[in-house]
Amino acid sequence: MNASPVLINGQPGNLIDISDRGFQYGDGLFETILFFRDRLVLFSCHMDRLQQGCSRLGIPFPGMDRLAKESNAVAQAGEGVVKILLTRGCGGRGYNVPAESKPNRVVSWHPFPDNLSAACNGIELQRCQTALSIQPLLAGIKHCNRLEQVLASRELANPAISEGLMLDTEGFVVEGTRMNLFFVKADTLYTPLLDRCGVEGIAKGWILEQAKKAGIETREKRIRLESLVQADEIFMTNSIYGVMPVVKFQANASIKDYPIGVMTLSFQKAWEKLLQSGAE
Question: Phi-psi category of 272—alpha, beta or left, where left has phi over 0 and alpha has psi -120 to 50?
Answer without folding.
Answer: alpha
